[in-house]
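May I ask you for just one protein sequence along with its backbone structure tokens in two labelled lines?

_____
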Amino acid sequence: MLAADDKLNSVMAAPAAISRPRAVPDSGSRGRSDIRVSEEQLAAFRRDGFLVLDDLTTPDEIASMRTLYDRLFSERRGWENGDLFDMVGRDSAERPASVPQMLWPSRYWPELRQTQLYASAVSIAEQMLGPGIQNILEHAIMKPALHGGATPWHQDDAFSRKGSGFLESISIWMPLQDVTLENGCLMYIRGSNWGPLYPHRSPNNDPRIHGLETVAKPDMTNLVPVPVRAGGAVIHHSRTLHAAGVNTSDQPRRAYVLGYAVQARPHSRFSRDYPWNLEKRTARDERELSKLPGWKRTLRKVRRFLRGR
């Protein structure tokens, strides 16, 4: 796509209007069935590649979740296993991460999967993808106050392997406080879910960094910043181009993300991987490998070799 950085400032100053339909509550009890996604909302999602929903849970639950969420990061849960790392910078135990990210936080906080927010996400995924959904990712992202780094433009499909067997997947991005342009809300390229998977690379061409970015800057013509209220969510397709700005506010920006897909065919374990994933040599990977039994480390190395053959 053609780079158009000069358009970014003008669009950010006057963001495009977006539809913000409220989730329709069911008349029954609170639980998996009380969030409804209408046909109009599904059509908007297919058209634009993203959809905003409000009121997935209560303000009290969000306040409680923030306290436990902050504790997970302050105690550096998952660091030794490679579940905690810097998403956009080189990992270091000696300096703060630019954007700390934690994989599978429910490993360290099992009650997370008993929250209303989690139940609402499951219900949304079932309605959008149909039966047989699989939870393919779970992570928590913390952008520190005043300096939390920018999340570069990327597509979630770039992190997957070609033979994953998942033809379509979604991410449900749920903030634990209001997100705005000031603290780094997500930004999307409307309609990019209909486009190709673009070439990616490691940020700054450094394979020691976990994240990915598109090689070329996207065309910003259809840029849409998407503020979301605490307790709501923005759902995006795995092919939709998105990014997030720097957190310039005086409070951390917290997001809980769940990804879902339906497997359309068996996984191909040894299909060739994308070159930008094969080049990765991160400290996070090394920490994860060090915790595996020897035979599992060997098996993983063999699979990596075959995917890059």
